[in-house]
Amino acid sequence: MDVSIILTYRCNSKCSMCYVWQHPTLPQEEVPLATLAKIPSGVDYLNLTGGEPTLREDLLDIVDLLHPKAMQLEISSNGSYPERLEPIIRRYPDVKIRFSLEGFELTNNRIRGERGGFDRKVKGLLRLKELGGKDLGFAVTIQDDNGPELAKLFQFAEKHGVELATSTLHNGFQFHKNDNRPYNGLRVAQHIESLINQQLRSRSVKNWFRAYLNLGLIAKVLGHDRILKCTAAADFVFIDPWSDVFACNVRPDLRLGNLNTSSWEGILDGPKARSIRELVDKCTQNCWMVGSAKTAMRVKWFPKLPKAAPILWVARNKLRVTFGRSADLGQILDPLRARQGPVGPARPSFLDAATPRHVQTGDDPYYAQLGEFLNE
Ligand code: SF4
């Protein structure tokens, strides 16, 4: 099973597609070590995320506790405090680090509301590489504003010997957003198509399977059904900063229990978990969040092994690009089949904005007030 832990909703970036930073948590309420200790050993993949996880002063202690329990541990950071990750990489060079990067200097800093963010995270990641980090990379949320830079961003990552992970705009309680939609889905999809062809041309097997993951992003961007079924609550769960365990980070109604007050087994093996898995089975959301995509692509009992559908797609399309053709995306890119939801208000840049922050506490039943987060 994969576990994502939202260690905090505090964040020092001011992204236009994620409003976590407007709803910070109180540090004393954030999931404590004693609660995290209840997570059993043998987790396939453990992601420490936020908010900004490096704002947790006990991050090294958390990694000390959880690294032995997971086959792979990732820290998803905005990269603004790379020096806080140095002791972690010195001790655990295999910890996977991804810094969010939304494009080159102007684009990244505008989308993420980060003054000097691009330089800081690029220098920071390269420093972690010098220190011996083995699995480092950037992570981009593909959208209208950075689509044109996608191909160059991939080359930039390749040049520096680091990875480029991709996702796209989603709505969900983790982001406090319900108006994340592309303005021109077809154009965004075409940028992803170019990336798919580049990835299939590369020598890295990882990139070939990322190409398949990106095929799922095209389906998401154009409003097609998921290309593989979701297995939330069975193959992955999210833990929020108040230690609530959810099937995913989109639907706040899929809450399994609270890890402060219950055991791991009590939460995952009880009748509530069974009923939530039934809801997941009927979920009609068209999401392709990285967590749900990765787990859907792999064989349950052999998490390093992809399922037959991705293997066959990769084999066929690797062969096509090897012989000078483009990947066959089937009907996914057909504009006549594309379903586009209504475009929400323009995403503003918060680079110079002083936006009030509302501290969110565990007593405040605000998830319930937020309603449904929809991914059409
Ligand atoms: S498909 Fe539904 S249950 Fe699965 S991650 Fe998306 S919103 Fe959650």
Small molecules bound in the structure, each named once: iron/sulfur cluster
Provide mean pLDDT, rounded. 93
Query: What's the helix-strand series?
Result: EHEHEHEHHEHEHHEEEHHHEEHH
What's the Cα radius of gyration?
20 Å
> What is the overall shape?
globular
Instruction: State the distance separating the first and last CA atoms.
Output: 27 Å
Instruction: List low-confidence stretches.
Output: none
Bin the strand percentage: 15-25%
Number of E strands:
11
Strand order of the largest sheet: 6-5-4-3-2-1-7-8-9
Structural class: alpha/beta
> Helical content, roughly?
25-40%
SS field, number of helical segments? 13
Q: Topology, please?
A:
Layout: E1 2-6, H1 33-36, E2 43-49, H2 59-66, E3 70-77, H3 86-91, E4 96-100, H4 105-112, H5 117-130, E5 135-142, H6 150-159, E6 163-168, H7 185-201, H8 205-221, E7 236-239, E8 244-246, E9 255-258, H9 264-269, H10 271-281, H11 290-297, E10 298-299, E11 302-306, H12 308-322, H13 366-370
Parallel strand pairs: 1-2, 1-7, 2-3, 3-4, 4-5, 5-6
Antiparallel strand pairs: 7-8, 8-9, 10-11
Helix pairs in contact: 7-8, 8-12
This protein binds iron/sulfur cluster.
Iron/sulfur cluster binds at residues 230, 232, 247-248, 250-251, 280, 283, 285, 287, 289, 292.
